[in-house]
Design a protein that fits this description.
- The structure is a homodimer.
- By secondary structure, chain A is an alpha/beta fold.
- Chain A has 2 domains: about 240 residues, Aspartate Aminotransferase, domain 2 (3-Layer(aba) Sandwich), CATH 3.40.640.10; about 100 residues, Alpha-Beta Complex (Aspartate Aminotransferase, domain 1).
- Chain A is built from 12 helices and 13 strands.
- In chain A, strands 2-10-9-8-5-3-4 form a 7-stranded mixed beta sheet, sandwiched between helices. In chain A, strands 1-12-13-11 form a 4-stranded mixed beta sheet. A two-stranded antiparallel sheet of chain A has the order 6-7.
- In chain A, strand 12 and strand 13 form a beta hairpin.
- In chain A, helix 3 crosses helix 4 and helix 10 packs parallel to helix 12.
- At the A-B interface, helix 1, helix 3, helix 4, helix 9 and strand 12 of A face helix 1, helix 3, helix 4, helix 9 and strand 13 of B.
Chain lengths: ~350, ~350
C-alpha cells in the first residue's frame, strides 16, 4: 500500500524494526539515556532551547495539554481557525472553561494578519492566542507565525501553535520566531508510529502555567518537566514508539533538517503540479499551499468516498477524504515524513487512474 | 536482560514483531477490523459484555478517564487506598474537584470490608467508591471486590476498580462481580508494549457519565464509545502498539484465560516460596499476596538501590525498587504476562546471588 494520507505516515523499515527491540525498564538507565538523546534531537528539529516534553498521547493530547496548562479558568482567548483543527482548539478551550473569541477564515485561506490585529485591538483583555500552523483538513500552511508572535508579545500575550503536521517537515523556527508553545506529533513528519506528542514551552509559558489553576494531571506539563530532569516520565511512556522515535531521529539528523525541508518543498510542488496537470484545482489558495498535505477539489458530481475505494482496491493507494463539511468533496494527498519522488509519482498515477475509472476525462 | 519488574513486561518476539508491520490508515477498513477483533478479545479477558474502550495512554490515563467521566464536580467519594496507586486515585479526585474520604490501610494489608462498610455508613452521601484491585507498590491483591460491589450497589452506588496490574493475569470477573468501571493497561499481563489502556463501563456508569459535568475531551469516554461504533477512535490511536495487542490477544486466547490464571498462581507461589527460602519476608500479609508482583523486604541495613544495580550488572536481571516511603526498603519482583518457570528460577537465582554479593548470609 502507498499510504498517502497526512498521518499516520509510513515508517521506515529500520524504524519499525527498532520498535521491536526488547522491552526495558522505563525507570532505568537505558530509558534515561534514550530520553535524553531523543529530547536533544527533538529540540534540534524544533530549533529551540526551550523545554520540549514528550507525552504518550496523540496530537490531540498535546492540544489538550496546551489548553489545560495555559488557558486560565474563564480567561478570554483568541482562537484563529482555518479548518477542523482550529475548530478543535475552540472546542478544547470551551470544554475547559475558557471564553473564546473565534476568528474563522474560509476553508482554503490562511489567516489575515490585519483581521487578527483588529480582533486583538477590539478585545484588549485577550492575552492568549491559539493558532494552527498547518491545517491538515484544508492543506494550508499559515505564513503569519513570525508577525503574529511579534504582535502577540507586543501586547504582552502568549502564542500557542499547533504545528502537529508541519514541524519536522517544513521550517518552524521556535526560538527565532519567538513561539511560546509549539505542538507536534510522532506520526507526522517524524517517521514514527503514532503514540507520542511533543510540547515546547517558553519561559513566558512556564510562568503562566505555574499561576494557572485549571485542573490537570496526566497532561500536567510541570510534572513532565520535573520527571524529565531525572530521565523519566511521570507516567509509563509508550516505550516501543519511543524506540522508533530514537531511530527515526538518527535518520533525520543524518539527512539534516534543511535537506528535509527542501525535500518537502520539492515533493509538495511536484504533487501540486501533477494534480493541476490533471485539470483539478486545489482547496488551498495560491501562496499558502502546504508542503505536507494537498487538499484536492473533486470534479463536480464525483463521489469522494468512491474515489478513495477505487484508489485503494485498484491502485493500492490510500488517500484521505475530507473532514466535516468537506466530506466527499475533496481528497487529501499526504506527502510528509518518509516519502520520496517515487511515492509521489505513484500517488499521482493512482489518482489519475482512479479518476479515469470513475469516468473523469480531465 | 531478565525484566522482572511489574511492568512494562517482556513482549513475546512475535508480538514485538507484529508492531513492526506496515503502517495503516487509522480511518480505514484494516484498522476497523483490527479494533473490532481486539475489543472482542479484551472483553473476553475482562469477562464482560460491557463496553470496553481502548485509550492511547498509560494506565494513569485510564485512571484519569475514570475520574473525569465518573466523579461529579464537588461530589463526595470514597477512595480505598492500600498504597501508591490508591493514593494516585486520591490525587486525581482532588485535582478534578471531587471531595475525598480517604480510607487507608497499612502497606502490605488489603482493605478490611468491615471498615469500608462502616465508612460508607458514616457518610451516606457517598455514592462512588474507587479501589485498587492489585496494588503494584506493595504486592497485594484485594479479595473484597465481589463483596464490595454488592455493598456499593446496595446503597445505589458505583464502583470503580483499578485492575491495571491484575486483569489478564488473575481473575477479574467484571460482570459476575458486577464491577461498574474496570481499568487495565497493555504493558502488564497483556504482553504488549505500554501505550494502550482499557476502561470498561457498565450501564450505571454510562448513566452517571452522561449527567456528569466534569470537563473532559481526550479522555471523554462517550466520544470513544461513539467512534468505536464505526471502528475508529476519536483521536489518532497508537497503531503499532495496537498491532502488538492484536497479536498478543491471539496468543492469550490460544492459551486460554483459565490456563493463564493458573500459570500466574503457580509462578506467584513459586516466587514467594523461593524468596522465603532465602530467609526473606514479604511485605504483603498472608493470604493477600499478589500473583503478579512480589514485594520483598530487604534485610536490615541493606541498600535497595545497590541491590538493584548488582542484580542488573552481575545477573542481567532488572527488579523494581520501592516507591514513596518504601524506597530503598523493598524490591519488587514482577511475575506477570510473558513469563514462565525458567524466568522465575533465573530471577530467584539473581536475587540470591545479588544478596550474597552484598554480604547477606541468609
Amino acid at each position: 500500500m502507498n499510504l498517502r494520507i497526512p498521518g499516520p505516515t509510513p515508517v521506515p523499515p529500520e524504524v519499525a524494526q527498532a520498535g521491536a527491540a526488547d522491552m526495558i525498564n522505563h525507570r532505568g538507565p537505558e530509558f534515561a539515556a534514550m530520553m535524553n538523546r531523543t529530547t536533544a534531537g527533538v529540540k534540534h528539529v524544533y530549533q529551540t532551547q526551550h523545554d520540549v516534553m514528550t507525552l504518550s498521547a496523540s496530537g490531540t493530547g498535546a492540544m489538550e495539554a496546551a489548553v489545560v496548562n495555559l488557558v486560565e479558568p474563564d480567561e478570554h482567548v483568541l482562537v484563529i481557525s482555518i479548518g477542523e483543527f482550529g475548530d478543535r482548539f475552540i472546542n478544547l478551550v470551551k470544554t475547559y472553561g475558557g471564553r473564546c473569541t473565534e476568528l474563522k477564515f474560509e476553508q482554503g485561506l490562511a489567516a489575515d494578519m490585519n483581521k487578527v490585529e483588529a480582533t486583538l485591538k477590539a478585545h484588549p483583555d485577550i492575552k492568549t492566542v491559539l493558532v494552527t500552523h498547518n491545517e491538515t483538513s484544508t492543506g494550508v500552511t499559515q505564513p503569519i507565525l513570525p508577525a503574529l508572535a511579534q504582535y502577540v508579545h507586543s501586547i504582552d500575550g502568549l502564542l500557542i501553535v499547533d504545528a502537529i503536521s508541519s514541524l519536522s517537515s517544513v521550517p518552524v523556527k521556535t526560538d527565532e520566531w519567538d513561539l511560546d508553545v509549539v505542538l507536534s506529533g510522532s506520526q507526522k513528519g517524524w517517521m514514527t508510529a503514532p503514540g507520542l506528542a511533543f510540547v515546547s514551552m517558553s519561559d513566558r509559558a512556564w510562568a503562566k502555567a505555574d499561576r494557572n489553576k485549571t485542573p490537570r494531571f496526566y497532561f500536567d506539563l510541570r510534572r513532565h518537566q520535573q520527571s524529565a530532569a531525572t530521565g523519566q516520565t511521570p507516567w509509563t511512556p509508550a516505550v516501543s514508539v519511543w524506540f522508533q522515535l530514537d531511530r527515526a531521529l538518527q535518520i533525520m539528523l543524518a539527512e539534516g533538517i534543511e535537506n528535509i525541508f527542501a525535500r518537502h518543498r520539492r515533493l509538495g510542488r511536484m504533487t501540486r503540479d501533477g494534480v493541476r496537470a490533471m485539470g483539478l484545482t486545489l482547496l488551498a489558495s495560491e501562496g499558502v499551499e502546504s508542503d505536507t498535505v494537498t487538499a484536492i477539489r473533486l470534479p463536480e458530481g464525483m463521489d469522494g468516498g468512491k474515489l478513495l475505494n477505487v484508489a485503494m482496491e485498484n491502485f493500492h493507494t490510500v488517500f484521505a477524504g475530507g473532514q466535516g463539511s468537506l466530506r466527499g468533496k475533496i481528497i487529501r494527498f499526504g506527502h510528509l515524513g518518509y516519502v520520496n519522488d517515487k511515492d509521489i509519482v505513484a500517488g499521482l498515477d493512482a489518482l489519475r487512474g482512479s479518476l479515469a475509472k470513475l469516468g473523469y476525462k480531465g
